[in-house]
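User: I'm writing a tutorial on reading structure tokens. Could you give me a worked example: one chain, its sequence, then its tokens, then a sentence or two explaining what the tokens reveal?
Assistant: Sure. Here is the example chain.
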Amino acid sequence: MPESFGKRARGDVNARKAAAREERRIARNKRREDRAAGLLAPGPPLAEPEDEVGTPPGERDTDG
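And here are its predicted structure tokens:
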């Protein structure tokens, strides 16, 4: 049976979703405060570039 079957289950799912939204809101506000204080660099976090699998080093496109 899916989680959304029945009124009680829907209430539980909605409560979990609300709790997840609240956690995301708190984390987002903390990041904003940290950026304002200069603890974090502005903008989204940058991901490390991934290596191209199976391509010899001399044949990789390094122009970007």
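What the tokens reveal: The mean pLDDT is 77. Helices lie at 7-37.
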